[in-house]
Amino acid sequence: MRWDALEEEPCSVARTIGVIGDRWTLLILRECFLRTRRFEGFQSALGITRHLLAERLKKLVRTGILRRIPYQESPKRHEYILTQKGLDLYPIMMAIVHWGDTHMVDERGRPLLHEHKKCGKVFDPVMVCSECGEPLAAKEVTTRPGPGARPRPDRRPAESEAKPKARKRAAAA
Amino acid sequence: MRWDALEEEPCSVARTIGVIGDRWTLLILRECFLRTRRFEGFQSALGITRHLLAERLKKLVRTGILRRIPYQESPKRHEYILTQKGLDLYPIMMAIVHWGDTHMVDERGRPLLHEHKKCGKVFDPVMVCSECGEPLAAKEVTTRPGPGARPRPDRRPAESEAKPKARKRAAAA
DNA sequence: TTCTATAGTTCTAAAATTGAACTGTCAATG
DNA sequence: CATTGACAGTTCAATTTTAGAACTATAGAA
Questions:
Q1: Residue A53 needs a FRET pair 20 to 30 A away by CA distance; which of A142, A158, B131, B142 works?
Q2: Is the model's pLDDT at A165 over the cut of 60?
Q3: Which nucleotide's C1' sits nearest to the alpha carbon of A51?
Q4: Å between CA of B165 and C1' of C8
Q5: What class is the A1-85 domain?
Q6: Range(s) for CATH 1.10.10.10 in chain A?
Q7: Using one digit for the tens of pLDDT, what is the confidence trace for B13-42?
Q8: Are strands A112-116 and A77-82 parallel, antiparallel or unpaired?
Q9: CATH 1.10.10.10: does it fit domain B1-88?
Q10: Record: contact B104-A15, CB cut-off 8 A
């Protein structure tokens, strides 16, 4: 599977992964949510190579997750700011943080706490059902095809008729 | 940054990404939540090379996200099943699906709908504050260091002394 | 003039991924 | 009993990505 093909898949997971599903992109997005905005800021916080950083930022701009905005003329300089589409990635980030907080912390405890401005408390994110408000777990959910569904392709190499095995003892003739 | 180093970072995002933050792993996990359990099942659903699939499954088992369970003797065969740690990834998956459903669907609409068994309705996942129950948005949250916090390293190549780059009055002697 | 800050680009070497074939076990088939 | 098919991998060459380092460019400051 070529990676640009991911965005064509009839699957919201695949399409999302096609855009943000690599390690550096996710780390760059973490930085965005921590208010990093500039090239050097990302580079020094992450230790990513400048080459890859430039590449990833370009892709994030192209896909509408970041906007590149000038913050000074001469020399021209730009900042990278999350668009609304980018801000909407927040639940993904929080879900990732929460899983890490639950399963990956060492004896020191969590590196970062989150405070909800509205209620003033340190919180954990909880995923609930939009209809009944109950917390969600995998086992309480079933899936069914939606309007955009297409049959799942079988990607096994299709044992072509045209090419009879004749592997073993290759071309024994 | 070497990738095994990610799991050492004082950051729950980095550590989580170190375990599940690559494209194939995320797609394999999607399949797990869709009830795929066997090697051939993953391979034919995803089109991943057998080499990488074997590698990724091993890592998921090693990190405690999947358990490898025999389902027949002679020849020995195993299935890959989500552990509780793996099932806890559900909110991440749902957050990814939801973002894709919101920002990446084509004119056909969503490929997959989710039904909450408890309330019987097709739902969207909503992330709320554990303390007040209100939906969360990035702008309503502030962060502060937790017990496991450590100062953020600056990873810029450290302008080595050994290399007389004539830095600020470089040791004018 | 030289240095520094910022935001990249270019290059080569190293690492990861792809694609395809190959291995091995056992059951069923002709 | 030799062949085939299902399953779960392993092996290896070729390609693609990524890492690491140096280089380019602009403009203000020392």
A1: B142
A2: no
A3: C9
A4: 21
A5: mainly alpha
A6: 1-85
A7: 999 999 999 999 999 999 999 999 999 999
A8: unpaired
A9: yes
A10: yes
